[in-house]
Design brief:
heterotrimer, A mainly alpha (about 350), B mainly alpha (about 300), C alpha+beta (about 425), A: about 350 residues, mainly alpha, MetI-like fold, flat, B: about 300 residues
Chain lengths: ~350, ~300, ~425
């Protein structure tokens, strides 16, 4: 047993001892040092046990052979992973539980199981505003502009990435630098001039969501262009050359050779765009005015009037229903999604 | 990625214009949808432009105000503190979890998905309610502190802690850097560790001497993207603390938003946005400039 | 691809042209909660049936609404009839000094202006132009949680002194978490002005200049500070630590630990509805020991305007008149926009019992008491919003960043700067 371990063993034992002593003295009339121990008894106990566990782990680890060591370290990993996992998933569970709580309980309890479950939130979520709009219609509206936007973004970004990644033309370096710098543009500074411009085009309150869709035809989401360029760098150029020799023209090379290779990155770009656009609030807020065209993000806000007071279960129920498609798409496509974002950054 | 110096091999000259044609839609879109609004905002930043009544040229007055008004100076400082607190914490946490996940463990996919959920929820209303419930006076964290016999902390009202809980929100959403780290770790050849173990290197030394250099391109990528995000952070303070207490969480982006939409002062708002843009550009440039010193690309060492 | 874009662009243009070419269609915008949406939709349906026209609607909740509407007016695509906040009448002015709203005086043959009092019309008149017609007048008043006061064994306060004493009683009998009143920064500002006006009998701002000296303001701020010292109101830090962005969402209000609010009569119902079961909510009285004057102000809660570039101002005017002055419209809107400002609206709603009794009681007390005008810049964003002057002054005071005298100076300078713009 090494000296370090011994020191830690002593520290652990001391801390635990203090904790136990504090627990034993609890409720008795003590002062000075003992009083401090009683006050923080649980902290000492917790720290002590933690230190002892670590010491135990080290001792066991040294005594074990390779196979047992493996089992031991795997066990520790699982403990950490599960603990972190709970921290990560709990909010979603809480949100589900909260849709069944009333306002008082939402603000006064942190547990996720409702004491007096109520369906009021879901009932109120079905309000149809005199036939103008309801939650299902609003979700449909969301996908009316999200789907074209996803398709256009992927197609236009791929073409642009192809141009930047595979061709050498005059001004390429400069334009590429310009492209990169748009990554750092804060959207909030563009809002006002963009709004004035789009309203001159007559795109405000367009029933086809032109203000939300048209820019995606021009590969304006730099993040995806950049990601696809990075990915393309990892694809051997010899493939293009071979295709050219086989008589493919430039577009055929793209469609027949590069797209199959780029597919994972294109899928993840599509997924990202799908989730981001579905969550977008500022865009629809500025450019959609007719209630029957409201997408889900605006429908959620319909129920949040400050003067009348919020029904939180309803707000949360609507939010929950409206993120279900995003969650479902994420769960179904998660492995491609992960491969895609990874590929953009790692390959090349 | 990261090989920004990569140049496409010289194609036949007559193909050059094809490349330009391919990027033409982007260029047109850029000029209309990005460049024009952006240049107009640059112009506004030198005026006292009011959203309704317009304005006139006032030179660098807005920029002088930005660097002398105590409120904006504080916002600049807070933004830096926020970025330099959040980015390292988030990256370390992401790397730690990725390191644990990077062994032959069953259910890696499940954990990976679970860890990504907070990043999907983003800055929604539900998160704001939850976060405040965690950190309020008699919230979960303070109840735990009480059980442990420690002093309660008024997180939401304390000038130092408030910024920290905003930072924690983003650390908690560590999904995308974690996924990237995980992929990079998987790319480190197993044999290197085995060789090092035989030489008697401890796992700590192995991590520092083998793992970190080999994944440095991804560290670099994460660093740049997270810095950009952190300097532009808006949602966290906007939904949780509204910039309070005593402006302790008022980031530049909040000033940009407030001066445009509650004071209608488009000039000042644009100036602040430009300052933000320049800061982000400078840090990105610094990262790119220093990358040769600490980022190792496998192809540069010739073992590819 | 490019052909596609061209086609899309052409279609878009054609569509917008077609939309504007349709005659006898007007549009209207408003904000609010579900019940207001329903009531307005009902009023509009009745109007459509009566006039044989179509009305396009645009509505949502307040959050994000100001951003949307300011953009719409600047871009010139605002709806024909628009619900407006009172301070918009003063800030929505273009480069040549022209308002973005139509002068309603020119439509007096369609709208029966005599239904509004001269004072109300005056409040909405800027540079001789009547820019909006008010839906309701509103003011601040105390509301108490009677249940908690019963537990403490005291009556709810009707004087400033009693309020301070209640703080001590609450702390002693119920505990440190209990306060007779809770005030946010803006609430403190309005209450302070109320107390100053009660003492000095002069309006806060007169002819675009601050009408109080720094020393006088310091007196008012001292009164607020004394309330905090007497445990009558929670500190800013305590309130922030509750983790709620308004009092009606605050757990301590919901469960009765904070037993009073100082709220607009038009939005007090959210505080009432938030209370946990078994708590009794009552309208309070004005404080009588502050001075010899009746302090406080009423303001136009909101109103309806016509956009200046509306293509059909006559029809728009008919719609406004219909909602305010015609029986069908009044019955449909009930008191969803507050206690009706139009005389005919008020009479009909009172006769038919369409008014919430708590709101009516509070509104009656406020109109009978408050005597001072409100300065249009009192609510400007730089002063009132998060990060604004009021918040800086009263949070700085509570966090002890400012002494009373310093806080008074900061408030004086901040308000003077905004008034000078």
């Amino acid at each position: 047993m090494s000296a370090t371990i011994l020191v830690f063993l002593v520290i652990g034992a001391l801390l635990t001892g203090c904790g136990l002593y504090g627990n034993a003295m609890q409720g008795r009339d003590v002062d000075g040092f003992a009083a401090a121990l009683v006050q923080s008894r649980n902290l000492y106990l917790l720290l002590g046990i933690l230190v002892l566990l670590i010491v135990l782990y080290r001792i066991l680890y040294r005594r074990c052979d390779t196979r047992q060591r493996h089992v031991l370290s795997t066990a520790v990993r699982y403990v950490i992973l599960v603990a972190v996992g709970i921290l990560m998933v709990y909010p979603l569970l809480w949100m589900v539980g909260a849709t069944f709580k009333d306002n008082v309980e939402i603000f006064t309890s942190i547990g996720f199981i409702p004491h007096k479950p109520t369906m009021e939130g879901y009932r109120a979520a079905m309000n149809d505003y005199g036939g103008d709009i309801n939650i299902w219609k609003s979700m449909l509206n969301t996908y009316k502009f999200v789907l074209p936007r996803v398709v256009f973004t992927v197609v236009s970004s791929t073409i642009t990435a192809y141009g930047f990644g595979r061709f050498n033309f005059r001004g390429r370096k400069f334009l590429f630098a310009v492209l990169l710098s748009t990554l750092f543009l804060p959207q909030v500074v563009l809002n006002i001039p963009q709004y004035l411009m789009y309203s001159k085009f007559g795109w405000v309150d367009s029933p086809w969501y032109l203000a939300l869709i048209v820019p995606s035809l021009f590969a304006q989401e730099t993040y995806f262009v950049y990601m696809l360029i990075q990915f393309m760098r990892g694809i051997p150029r010899d493939l293009d050359e071979a295709a050219k020799i086989d008589g493919c023209n430039i577009m055929q090379t793209l469609v027949l050779v590069l797209v199959p290779m780029l597919w994972p990155a294109m899928v993840s770009a599509a997924l990202f765009q799908f989730m981001w656009s579905s969550n977008d609030f500022m865009g629809p807020l500025l450019y959609v005015k007719t209630p029957s065209n409201y997408p889900a993000t605006l429908f959620v806000r319909l129920s949040m009037d400050g003067d009348a007071g919020f029904n939180w279960n309803r707000v949360l129920a609507i939010s929950l229903i409206s993120i279900i498609p995003s969650l479902a798409v994420f769960f179904m496509a998660q492995s491609q999604f992960m491969d895609g974002i990874t590929a953009g950054a790692v390959k090349g | 990625m990261q090989r920004t110096n990569t140049r496409p091999r010289r194609s036949r000259l007559d193909q050059g214009y094809m490349g330009f044609l391919l990027i033409l839609p982007w260029l047109v879109g850029f000029l209309i949808f990005k460049a024009y609004p952006f240049v107009s905002s640059l112009y506004y930043s030198f005026t006292d432009w009011n959203l309704f009544s317009g304005g006139s040229w006032i030179g660098i007055q807005n920029y002088v105000t930005a660097f002398t008004n105590p409120k904006t100076v504080k916002a600049l400082r807070v933004t830096f503190v926020y970025a330099f607190m959040t980015v390292p914490l988030k990256l370390m946490f992401a790397l730690f979890i990725a390191y644990i996940l990077n062994f032959k463990i069953k259910g890696v996919g499940l954990f990976r998905t679970a860890y990504y959920i907070p990043s999907i929820l983003g800055g929604s209303m539900a998160i704001a309610v939850l976060w405040r419930a965690m950190f309020k006076n008699d919230g979960v964290i303070n109840r735990i502190l009480t059980i442990l016999g420690m002093e309660n902390i008024n997180f939401l009202a304390d000038k130092t802690w408030a910024l920290f809980i905003i930072c924690l929100l983003r650390v908690w959403q560590f999904g995308s850097p974690m996924v990237l780290f995980l992929a990079a770790l998987k790319g480190v050849p197993e044999e290197l560790y085995e060789a090092a173990s035989i030489d008697g290197a401890s796992s700590g030394r192995q991590f520092l001497k083998i793992t970190l250099p080999l994944i440095s391109p991804v560290v670099f990528y994460n660093l740049v993207t997270q810095l950009v995000q952190a300097f532009q952070e808006f949602n966290g303070p906007y939904i949780i603390t509204q910039g309070g207490p005593r402006n302790a969480t008022t980031l530049i982006s909040l000033i940009v938003y407030n001066s445009a939409f509650s004071e209608y002062n488009v000039g000042m708002s644009s100036a602040m946005a430009w300052i933000m843009f320049v800061i982000v550009m400078v840090f990105t440039a610094i990262s790119f400039g220093t990358q040769k010193k600490w980022v190792f690309y496998s192809d540069e060492r010739g073992d590819r | 691809m490019k052909k596609l874009i061209a086609v899309v662009l052409c279609l878009a243009l054609a569509l917008t042209c077609a939309a504007t070419a349709l005659a006898e269609e007007i549009s209207i915008s408003w904000w609010g909660g579900d019940s207001r949406h329903e009531a307005t939709q009902a009023a509009i349906a009745a109007f459509e049936a009566a006039e044989g026209v179509t009305v396009k609607t645009h509505y949502a909740a307040w959050s994000g609404w100001e951003e949307t509407m300011s953009g719409s007016f600047v871009a010139g695509n605002a709806e024909d009839v628009d619900m407006v906040n009172w301070n918009w009448l003063f800030s929505f002015v273009d480069a040549s000094g022209e308002s973005y709203f139509y002068d309603l005086n020119q439509l007096s043959d369609i709208i029966d202006l005599s239904q509004w009092s001269d004072g109300m019309l005056q409040a909405c008149t800027v540079n001789g132009k009547l820019l909006a017609l008010p839906n309701a007048l509103t003011g601040r008043i105390f509301y108490w949680n009677k249940t908690t006061f019963d537990q403490a064994g005291i009556e709810f306060p009707t004087t400033y002194a009693a309020l301070k004493e209640a703080g001590a009683v609450f702390q002693e009998k119920l505990g440190n978490d209990y306060y007779p009143l809770a005030l946010g920064a803006y609430d403190k500002m309005i209450l302070m002005v109320y107390m100053l006006e009660s003492k000095y009998g002069k309006a806060w701002v007169v002819d675009g200049a601050l009408n109080y000296t720094v020393d006088e303001i310091a007196e008012g701020i001292q009164l607020i500070q004394d309330l905090e010292d007497a445990h009558a109101i929670p500190t800013a830090a305590t309130l922030a630590g509750d983790g709620a962005d308004s009092l009606d969402k605050n757990e301590k209000w919901i469960t009765g630990k904070y037993a009073g609010v100082w709220e607009w009569d038009t939005s007090a119902s959210k505080c009432q509805n938030a209370l946990a079961e078994g708590q009794e909510f009552v309208v309070g009285e004005e404080l009588t020991d502050l001075g010899e004057y009746k302090g406080g102000f009423t303001k136009v809660a909101h109103g309806f305007s016509i956009a200046r570039n509306s293509a059909n101002v006559e029809l728009a005017a008919k719609l406004i008149n219909f909602m305010n002055n015609e029986e069908e419209g009044i019955r449909a809107r009930k008191s969803e926009y507050g206690i009706p400002a139009s005389a005919k609206g008020l009479a009909l709603c009172s006769d038919e019992g369409l008014i919430n009794p708590t709101v009516a009681e509070a509104n009656g007390k406020i109109l009978a008491w408050c005597s001072f005008p409100l300065d249009p810049k009192f609510e400007s964003g730089e002063l009132k919003n998060d990060g604004g002057v009021y918040q800086d002054v009263f949070e700085g005071l509570s966090y002890q960043d400012y002494s009373v005298q310093e806080a008074a100076q900061v408030l004086f300078d901040g308000v003077t700067a905004v008034l000078a713009k």
